[in-house]
Amino acid sequence: MTTLPLWGSTFLLSLLIIVFMNVTFAESWNIIGGFTGLISFGHMVFFGVGAYTGAMLLRDFGLSPFITAPIGGLVALLLAVTTGLPCVRVSGFYFAIVTSSLNEVVRLVVTILPWTGGASGIVLPVLPFDPKTTTSIFYLAMLIVMIATIFATYKISRSKLGVGLMAIREDMEAAKAVGVPASGLKLSAIAIGSFFPGVAGSLYSYYMTYIDPTTVFNLLLSFQAIMMVLLGGSGTILGPVLGACLFTITSELFRYTIIFEALHAIIFGLLLIFIVLFIPEGIVGWCKRKFKSKIFI
Questions:
Q1: Are the beta carbons of 154 and 27 closer than 8 angstroms?
Q2: Ramachandran region, residue 293 (left: φ > 0; alpha: ψ -120 to 50; beta: rest)
Q3: Cα gap 182→172, rounded to integer Å
Q4: How many Å apart are CA 65 and CA 70, to the nearest integer?
Q5: Cα 271 from Cα 258, distance rounded (Å)
Q6: pTM, whole model, 2 decimals?
Q7: Rounded-to-integer distance, Cα 241 and Cα 230, Å
């Protein structure tokens, strides 16, 4: 029989690390998809690039993961800017195809190159502490990254950049007609939205002590980010947070329940269909419309 962990246990801290990481992932996707309306199916590529950057810097130069984490974010941002220049010229279905293709191209390149560890991946050393202390360290680090991502999203939503992005989402041609620099704003959203998953990926690689291309460039995780955002409410601040928390906690609990272990994907698939059909604005969007309260942002 499975028992729930006590507060402060290593299991619970590990669960919260995954929750914080998924909130970061969903909130950063929301900057691109929720505010701008660009549906990215390749958001995982920024996480993977950050993970490999951190892992290789640690393996080859012995740098601390807390030094390599922002570097991983900057490398992911650089990738976003260089590949985003042609990507911002397309939208809708074509943008989704381009971003998913980018993820697969980078995954294949990482798999082929010998100095990235190839298909075998990279094994990293563990911190010289007991498991509880190590987990606590990464818990605090991922918490800081999550808070920074939420804060950045909030500031964007209250800035001219956010207003411009939402104008593009509603009607890009009309926004261009009134002087909104659509391509530049979309590139800015992609760049900002890429930095935080790159940082989280770098921390994740050292926390797990092993990464491989199949894991950190898993296209399915990009779809999960979309599901978390839609569940909570696309284009809102609290929506991705709520969606990521609900998705991650219930998914992890299902893993320890024999009856639902093989059914959680089906359950979430049905839930997503329900949301799209009946509350397309998500839980937070529905609460804003229902209760008309300013606490739902």
A1: no
A2: beta
A3: 7
A4: 9
A5: 20
A6: 0.90
A7: 11
Helices 131-157 + 182-208 axis angle, to 10 = 170
Q: In the chain, which residues have pLDDT < 50?
A: 1-7
Read off the tokens for 161.
Answer: 């950049």
Question: What's the rounded Cα separation, in Å, for the pair 228 and 29?
Answer: 10
Residue-level length of the chain: 297
pLDDT in tens, 166-177: 998 888 888 888
User: What CA–CA distances, in Å, run from 64 to 124, 126, 183, 222?
Assistant: 12, 11, 37, 28
Instruction: Give me the pLDDT at residue 265, please.
Output: 66
Res 296: pLDDT: 62
Specify the amino acid at residue 216.
V
Rounded Cα distance between 185 and 203, Å, is: 29
Instruction: Indicate the SS3 state at residue 181.
Output: coil
Can you give the three-state secondary structure of 59-119, one letter per residue?
A: HHHCCCHHHHHHHHHHHHHHHHHHHHHHHCCCCCHHHHHHHHHHHHHHHHHHHHCHHHCHH
Phi (first) and psi of residue 123, to 5 degrees: -100, 130
Residue type at 15 in one-letter notation:
L
Looking at residue 2, its pLDDT comes to 39
188 token code pair? 């800015």
Token representation of residue 210: 């092993």
Residue 178 DSSP SS3: coil
